[in-house]
Amino acid sequence: DYASSVAMMLVAFLMLHFQKFSAELMSDWLPLFIPCENADTEVGDNREMRVPNTWCSSSQFLASFEFLGVLMGLASLDTNRSLELNFPSIIFKSLAHEELTLDDLKEFNFPVWRTINILRDPKASFEFRRSLLEVRASGT
Questions:
Q1: pLDDT at res. 3
Q2: I want to staple 22 with a disulfide (CB 3.0 to 4.6 A). Which of 52, 56, 71, 84 is the partner?
Q3: Residues 6+ apart with CB under 8 A from 109
Q4: DSSP the chain
Q5: 0.85 surpassed by pTM
Q6: 98-129: buried (b, 16+ CB within 10 Å) or exposed (e) per residue?
Q7: Residue 140 reports pLDDT greater than 60
Q8: CA-based angle 21:24:29, to the nearest 5?
Q9: What is the separation, in whole angstroms, between the first and last Cα of the chain?
């Protein structure tokens, strides 16, 4: 039908222009992906990574994510083209059903990773709470 033909032409066009499409997809221009927490807080590594925008949950945005999945599948079949997506490993591991680790979290959300590690280590947790009390007591 007509819609399928248009979709196939669009996919063919995008496959010819994967690099430009990837750059625009990862830019601030489109709302689908936002900078990871490390970029927002300016701590940790991989500040250039982007993560799916959880506010993009309408049927239109979900269709866009689904379309991106189709393009990712097509790109994986073509060794001459690739989508250059700046995702942290946690995204790709989730798609591949691989085991996630705290290091995956550290890669894009260092503040949460640090908090988890503080809470897991009683001595570090005590020191952290003590330093917060000292900051509060000094009024800074």
A1: 73
A2: 84
A3: 36, 37, 38, 44
A4: -HHHHHHHHHHHHHHHTHHHHHHHHTSTTSTTEEE-HHHHHT-SS-TT-EEE-TT--SHHHHHHHHHHHHHHHHHHH-TT--------HHHHHHHTTPPP-HHHHHHH-HHHHHHHHHHHSHHHHHHHHHHHHHHHHHT-
A5: no
A6: eeeeeebbbbbbbeebbeeebeeeeeeeeeee
A7: no
A8: 150
A9: 66
